[in-house]
Structure formats: C-alpha cells, structure tokens
C-alpha cells in the first residue's frame, strides 16, 4: 500500500478577479510527515491549504488524496473527503458557550445523521473518546468549562482535539499559533506534534514563525507569490533562502 497521502499535480488557482494565487504546485506528502508551509503574507499559503479540503476549488491541475483524484468532488463524495481531513483554524472556531468536551464532540458530526447531529445525540463511546482526547492535550480538568472560559492557548488545544476526534488521515492547521504568545505557541505546537506522532497522522501546518517551523516540522515548504521556491528539511533552510522568501521583491 502506498504511503502517499496527498499529491498535487500542476495545481493552480486563479480567482474570478484575475488574481493568480497558486501556480504549478507539485507536491507529494507522505504518511506521518509534519510539514510546515512558510512564506510572506499573501504568498498563497492559506489558498493552498483551502484547496486541499476544497474550500477553494482549484482552477487547474489535480489533487490526489489517498490515491483518489478529488479536485472536482461534490456532494456526498466531498463530505466523505472532508471527514478524513481535520482542520485547525487560526481563530479557533469554537462554540464559545458550549462546554469544552461538547466542542470536541463536534468532530464526530461527519459520522452522524444530520438529525442526530442537530440534536447533539452523541454516543457514550464518542463522549468517552472526547474526554480521552482532552486528556491527551492536557485539558482533562477543563472538559466541562465553557470554551470562552479558557485561555487562547487552551482554546487552540480544544481545536486540535476536535480535529483529532474526526479520526482523520490528514490534519491541516492554518496559522494555529498566530494569535498566541510565545509560551502558548510552544505548548500548542508540542501537543500538535505529539498527537500526530502518536497517531501516525500526517499534518500540514501554515506558520509565519520560521523558528517554530524549524523546531517542530520535519519538512518545510516555502511558498512565494503562489509558487514553491523551497522544499526540504529544516537544516536545509538557510538564512539566504529565508531572506529571499520574505525580503526580496
């Protein structure tokens, strides 16, 4: 069985206003990799990530996910694909008035009928799993607190727990530490890496902070003006490449 989880071939994205956001992206992501995507604001990092789970439909090229071409998926097929791709958001996207464990349970909605999901009828097993995942990210004691009673770093760990509850094969995290202080950022990235390693989970993480990318990722992809200009290990990411990525016009 192939260990390739995701493959993009000549992937391109042109928005209706003519803006060219992605150009000829050819990448292969393998099982168990923690890949960090870096680059300046407006480089196309978030557009690329949103194209993977088809929140943005690419205008060119193909996306292979677990051996299946998915770039034109619709309806039920699209829902099944998204169920296999967990997402961690920059601004957490939690239901602030709901208890922490309930937010984690929302990761199971893709496995339920819309009727049961709408009523919040989660099984005892799902609830046990949610509490177990919260323990894994160090939030067992916060399980019954409202989400808005938690710190920013804790809320982001709830976001990770919710994504893990989906039982995904690929985890996407779009600037997950952008709004956090350095200590909370370190905490969140430690938990993210640990959970991914324990579950053999493939993850792609957009980061502005190059130092965090070098510390936590085992592979770094640099994107500038919609194109991949670096793909290698943290040790291969030189100061010269960083300067070209962020400062050369």
Question: How would you describe this protein?
Answer:
This protein is of the alpha/beta class. The chain has a domain at 1-73 and 202-249: Rossmann fold, CATH 3.40.50. The chain has helices spanning 45-52, 75-83, 100-105, 114-119, 124-136, 152-165, 182-199, 210-216, 239-246, and strands at 4-14, 20-30, 34-38, 60-65, 68-69, 85-88, 170-174, 202-206, 219-224, 227-232. Strands 6-7-8-3-9-10 form a six-stranded mixed sheet, with helices on both faces. Strands 2-1-4-5 form a four-stranded antiparallel sheet, with helices on one face. A hairpin with a 5-residue loop joins strand 1 (4-14) and strand 2. Helix 5 packs across helix 6 (152-165) and helix 6 (152-165) packs parallel to helix 7 (182-199). The termini are far apart. The model has no long low-confidence stretch (mean pLDDT 91).
Helix/strand layout:
Blueprint: E1 4-14, E2 20-30, E3 34-38, H1 45-52, E4 60-65, E5 68-69, H2 75-83, E6 85-88, H3 100-105, H4 114-119, H5 124-136, H6 152-165, E7 170-174, H7 182-199, E8 202-206, H8 210-216, E9 219-224, E10 227-232, H9 239-246
Parallel strand pairs: 3-8, 3-9, 6-7, 7-8
Antiparallel strand pairs: 1-2, 1-4, 4-5, 9-10
Q: How much helicity do the residues have?
A: 25-40%
Count of helical stretches: 9
Q: Could you give the order of strands across the largest sheet?
A: 6-7-8-3-9-10
Rounded average pLDDT: 91
Radius of gyration: 18 Å
Task: Estimate what percentage of residues fall within beta strands.
Answer: 15-25%
Q: What composes the largest sheet? A: 6 strands, mixed
Which blocks of ≥5 consecutive residues have pLDDT under 50?
none
- Terminal Cα separation, in Å? 43 Å
CATH class of the domain at 1-73 and 202-249: Alpha Beta
CATH-level-2 architecture of the domain at 1-73 and 202-249: 3-Layer(aba) Sandwich
CATH-defined superfamily of the domain at 1-73 and 202-249: P-loop containing nucleotide triphosphate hydrolases
How many beta strands in the DSSP annotation?
10
CATH topology of the domain at 1-73 and 202-249: Rossmann fold
Topology as a string of helices (H) and strands (E)? EEEHEEHEHHHHEHEHEEH
Keywords: ATP-binding, Cell membrane, Membrane, Nucleotide-binding, Phosphonate transport, Translocase, Transport
GO cellular component, one term: membrane
Domain ABC transporter: 6-247
Protein name: Phosphonate ABC transporter ATP-binding protein
């Amino acid at each position: 069985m192939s260990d390739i989880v995701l493959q993009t071939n000549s992937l391109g994205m042109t928005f209706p206003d003519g803006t060219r956001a992605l150009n000829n992206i050819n990448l292969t992501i393998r099982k168990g990799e923690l890949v960090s995507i870096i680059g300046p604001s407006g480089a196309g990092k978030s557009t690329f990530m949103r194209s993977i789970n088809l929140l943005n439909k690419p205008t060119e090229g193909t996306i292979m996910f677990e051996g299946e071409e998915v770039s034109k998926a619709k309806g039920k097929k699209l829902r099944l694909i998204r169920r296999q791709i967990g997402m961690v958001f920059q601004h957490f996207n939690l239901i602030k008035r709901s208890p922490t464990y309930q937010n984690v349970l929302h990761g199971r909605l893709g496995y339920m009928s819309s009727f049961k999901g709408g009523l919040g009828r989660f099984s005892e097993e799902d609830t046990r799993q949610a509490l177990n995942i919260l323990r894994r990210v160090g939030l067992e004691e916060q399980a019954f607190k409202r989400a808005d009673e938690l710190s920013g770093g804790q809320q982001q760990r709830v976001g990770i727990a919710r994504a893990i509850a989906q039982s995904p094969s690929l985890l996407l995290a779009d600037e997950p530490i952008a709004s956090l202080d350095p200590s909370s950022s370190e905490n969140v990235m430690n938990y993210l890496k640990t959970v991914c390693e324990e579950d053999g989970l493939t993850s792609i993480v957009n980061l502005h902070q190059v130092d965090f990318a070098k510390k936590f990722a085992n592979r770094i992809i640099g994107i500038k003006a919609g194109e991949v200009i670096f793909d290698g290990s943290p040790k291969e990411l030189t100061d010269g490449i960083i300067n070209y990525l962020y400062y050369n016009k």
